[in-house]
Structure formats: structure tokens, C-alpha cells
UniProtKB/TrEMBL annotation:
SUPFAM superfamilies (UniProt xref): Periplasmic binding protein-like II
Naturally occurring in which organism (per UniProt): Ramlibacter albus
Signal peptide (UniProt feature, chain positions): 1-24
UniProt keyword list: Signal
Protein name, as recorded: Tripartite tricarboxylate transporter substrate binding protein
Length: 328
């Protein structure tokens, strides 16, 4: 009996020593600067949101939160860096829609998002918008579909590249509408927008923030937004839903993810603090100026959202008939 008690006591003490360092790490977190890795260049929407979020998070956690830009390969470079980072709670990824599209448009990623990264929180989501040249005889989605049916393959639209969110989404819109459209890939939205304004391109599919000023000046015409209902940022523009295309309400979103293996206590603490940051009126105003709706929610909410996004973009990639590309 004494021997059994001694054995059980020894096992309990061993377990305590094993878990003590982890518990101490979680209790003291954070005690040094935190890095938020952004996969796009300074000035991009994800960068601007990350910097506003970093400011608020740093104030709450009482440590410096630094934004590092690691652009390239459609955010794959940044995602891989975080996937391979130590799981100590000091390196995080500003995730985005591209993390849900990349598995379907690239041959082999250097990481497995589901296994190597852990979603934490959804920061915000921005509806996408199709804007047309003032020289094209269409003013909304219904007219665009009718025009495309009369002129198969003639109606052109630009996007940020093959396999981009907007390329995939427009192709699934075309498939469900029974039309053929001509995709013109660009390396950036600004050149495509200028081509639309100049009449060299029929339309451009991008974010509201990238096209709103041109639309308000009359240089472009808004055809539709991809939100479920009309967007408060462009209330006079119809949604896909009201035009009869249901289930395509996927905007450009931003979130936060961590390397897999970060202790759950740190993940949950980060989520709680992030939600408090997102309640700040200053943060809300800053994001809404970019036509981004603040989201938030639990870790489980973000996981469910990401799984839905993966399935949605899988269908979109199939509709776009995208041949998986090599990561460059």
C-alpha cells in the first residue's frame, strides 16, 4: 500500500514539474515585443489594418507590437515564416482571404495551413465590387449578364492576377450566370483601374476602397457588390443576392493566426484582447474609412469561418479552371 502511494505521488510530482514551465510561460506572457507578420507591402489594406490593430493591442498588453512586412508569392512567404516560427506566442500572422485561396491555386505550399497554423480571430471583412468603364453600356449586374450573353467572351475584366480572390470570384459568378467573360490579369489594381478609366478595359473587380473615389467622381460605374445585402459604403449599388446569385457573399477578409503549438491559454488571451481592441471607436472608424467592417468573435468562430472559406474558394478555383501554379 505504501509503495503504491509512493508511486502515485511520484507520478503526480513528475507531471507537476513537466507542466510548471508551460504554465509559467503562459502566466508571464507577454514579457517582450510581439511581431505581426504581413504578407503585403506597406500601404496595402492588410498593412494599414495591422498597424492600427498593433497600436491598440500594444496598449492593452503593455508591450511593443511590431508590424513586419514580408511580401511575396501571394502572402505565402509570410505565412510560411509564421508556420515555421517558434510556438512561443511572440510571432503572429495577419491572415487573409489569400490563405483560403492559395491551397487551390498553387501546386504545393511549403506549409499546411490547417496543421501548421492556428486561427485566432477575424479582424474585419470588406465587400468586393465590380466597377465598369463609363464607355461600356451596362449599369448593373443584370445588364452586364445580358451584354455578356449577346457578346460571348467580349466583356473584359481585370484583377490582381491569375488565382487572385477577384479572379476566382468573377469566374464563379460567370459560371452561375451562364456567361463567358475575358479575364485580364494585372500585377496591381492601380494600372487596371487606369485602363478602365481610359476605356482600354471594360471593368475591374476589386475592393470598394480601391474604386470608391473613382466611382464617386464618375470615372467608373459600380455594377455590384459581393455582400449579402447592399453595403453601407455604397448603398446605391445592388448586391449579388438581390440579383439572384446566392451564396457568393465572400469579401476580402483579414484575421490573425499563430504557429500551431502555441499554448491555448495564450491563444485565448490574445483573442480576448483582440476583441477589446476591435471595440475601440478609433479602430472602428479607421477600418470603416477603408470600407472594412470590424468583425471579432471567438477562436471557434474564426475556425468555422475559415473552413467555410476554404470550401467556397475550392469551388471557385474549379469554376475558374485554374491550373495549380508553382510557388515562386
Amino acid at each position: 500500500m505504501f509503495r503504491m502511494i509512493k508511486t502515485l505521488l511520484g507520478a503526480a510530482l513528475s507531471s507537476a514539474f513537466v507542466f510548471a514551465p508551460a504554465q509559467a510561460q503562459e502566466a508571464s506572457w507577454p514579457n517582450r515585443p510581439i511581431k505581426l507578420i504581413v504578407g503585403l507591402t506597406p500601404g496595402a489594406s492588410s498593412d494599414t489594418v495591422a498597424r492600427e490593430f498593433a497600436k491598440g493591442l500594444g496598449e492593452r498588453l503593455k508591450v511593443s507590437v511590431v508590424v513586419e512586412n514580408r511580401p511575396g508569392a501571394n502572402t505565402i512567404i509570410a505565412s510560411n515564416l509564421v508556420a515555421k516560427a517558434p510556438a512561443d506566442g511572440y510571432t503572429f500572422l495577419i491572415s487573409s482571404s489569400m490563405n483560403a485561396t492559395n491551397p487551390w491555386v498553387y501546386e504545393k505550399l511549403p506549409y499546411d495551413y490547417r496543421k501548421d497554423l492556428k486561427n485566432i480571430v477575424l479582424l474585419g471583412e470588406a465587400p468586393n465590387l465590380m466597377a465598369a468603364s463609363s464607355k461600356v453600356p451596362v449599369n448593373n449586374l443584370t445588364e452586364m449578364i445580358a451584354y455578356a450573353k449577346k457578346n460571348p467572351g467580349k466583356f473584359s475584366y481585370g484583377s490582381a492576377g491569375v488565382g487572385s480572390v477577384h479572379h476566382l470570384l468573377m469566374e464563379i459568378v460567370a459560371k452561375r450566370s451562364g456567361i463567358e467573360v475575358n479575364h485580364i490579369p494585372y500585377k496591381g489594381g492601380s494600372v487596371a483601374i487606369q485602363d478602365v478609366i481610359g476605356g482600354n478595359l471594360d471593368s475591374y473587380f476589386g475592393t470598394i476602397s480601391s474604386t470608391r473615389n473613382f466611382i464617386q467622381r464618375g470615372d467608373m460605374k459600380a455594377l455590384f457588390v459581393t455582400s449579402e445585402k447592399r453595403s453601407k459604403y455604397m448603398p446605391n449599388v445592388g448586391s449579388l443576392e438581390e440579383h439572384g446569385l446566392k451564396g457568393l457573399n465572400s469579401g476580402y477578409w483579414l484575421g490573425v493566426a499563430a504557429p500551431a503549438g502555441v499554448p491555448d491559454a495564450i491563444i485565448q488571451r490574445f483573442n480576448r484582447e483582440a476583441n477589446e481592441v476591435l471595440k475601440s471607436q478609433e479602430v472602428i472608424d479607421r477600418l470603416e474609412r477603408q470600407a472594412i467592417d470590424v468583425k471579432g468573435g471567438s477562436v471557434a468562430d474564426m475556425e468555422r469561418f475559415f473552413e467555410r472559406e476554404l470550401e467556397f474558394w475550392k469551388e471557385a478555383a474549379s469554376a475558374a479552371r485554374v491550373s495549380p501554379m508553382a510557388v515562386q
